[in-house]
Amino acid sequence: MKKLSRRNFLNTSIALGGGVVLASCAAKPEEEKKNLTVENGEIPIVISTWANKGANKAAWDLLEGGKSSLDAVEAGARIPEGDPKDMSVGYGGRPDREGNVTLDACIMDKDGNCGSVTYLQHIKHPISVARKVMEETPHVMLSGDGALKFALDQGFKKEDLMTDASRKQYKKWLETSEYKPKVNIELHDTIGIIAIDQKGELSGACTTSGLGYKMAGRVGDSPIIGAGLFVDNEVGSAVATGMGELVMRSVGSFLVVELMRQGRTPMEACKEAIMRIVDRQDTTEVQVGYIALSKDGTYGAYSIKPGFVYAVTTKDGTEVVKAESYES
Ligand code: SD4
C-alpha cells in the first residue's frame, strides 16, 4: 500500500469539504452521542483502548464506590491480564519467538509517581507488580529477573502463562517462523486505561505481552513512561496501542499530553501525535492508536489506520467508540 503523505491527506480532507473533524470526541457517530455529555466533560470517567468492556466495568465499580483512579485503573488492567482468551496481555499472551511469555506494564498516579516492569515472566498481573515498584521501591522501572525476584518477594505467585491455545498457535508459528509485524496481525489488544475519580484526580495504566513472536529481549512502548502512558494531573493523560517502536521514537503519550497543555482538545492532540509519526516513519503496514482524557473529562482518540476502537464508561453506561483515523 502506498504511504499517504500528510499533504495528500490534508488536500483530500479539504476536497471533501474540510472533513477533518477536530472537535473533541468527534470520533463518536452522532447516534452514539446521546447518552454521554462529553462536550462538558463527565466525571468520574474511565476510558480504555479497544473494546475492553470488562476492564471498564471493574474500574467503574471502584470509581462509583468513591475509590481512587489509581485503584480503578489497576483493577481494570487486571481483567485482560487474567483472561486467557486475551492473547495480547498477561496470562495466555503470545510468547516471544523463543516461546517465553514476557510482559510489560506501567502505572502512573495523580502526583506523577510511576512504576514499571519490563520483560517480566511468570507473573499473571504485571500491572500490580508495577504498582508495587512505584509504592515500595525508590525506582521507577524493574526488568527481567530483577522484576521477577521483586514480584516473588512481594508475594506474587510464579505461574506458567502459556495456555493450550497459545502453545498451539506458537507451534504453528514455528512451522514458518516468519515474523513481519503487520497491521492487526498482533490483534492489538494491549490495554491502556485512564480514569478520573470523584475527586477529579487522574491515573493511568498500560499492560501487554507485547508483539507476538517478537525477538527475545524486545521491550515495547507500553512500560515506558512518556511513550506508552503519561499522566499529568493538571492537564490530562494519554495511552498508546499498536506498534511500540513508532510510539517510542516519538515519545507519543507525553507528546499528546503536552499538546493538550497547549490547548488542543484530546482528539486534536492524538491526531497531531499520529501525524508526527506518519510524517516521519514508515507506517505502511502498522497501526498506532492513542486515546486521551483531559482533566475536565473530555476525551478523544486517533489512529493511523481505521479499525481502532476504545471503550468509554461514565454514569450513563459503557460504549465502544470508533476512532477517527489518518487513513480511511
Ligand atoms: C508493543 N504497544 O509492545 C505494544 C503492542 C500493542 O496492541 O499495543 N498491541 O509494542
TrEMBL record:
Substrate binds at residues 218-221, 241-244. InterPro entries: Ntn_hydrolases_N, Peptidase_T2, TAT_signal. One of its GO terms (cellular component) is cytoplasm. The active site is at 190 (nucleophile). GO terms for molecular function: hydrolase activity, acting on carbon-nitrogen (but not peptide) bonds, in linear amides. The record marks 189-190 as: Cleavage. It comes from the Bacteria. Pfam families: Asparaginase_2. PANTHER family: L-ASPARAGINASE (PTHR10188), N(4)-(BETA-N-ACETYLGLUCOSAMINYL)-L-ASPARAGINASE (PTHR10188:SF6). This is N(4)-(Beta-N-acetylglucosaminyl)-L-asparaginase. It comes from Portibacter lacus.
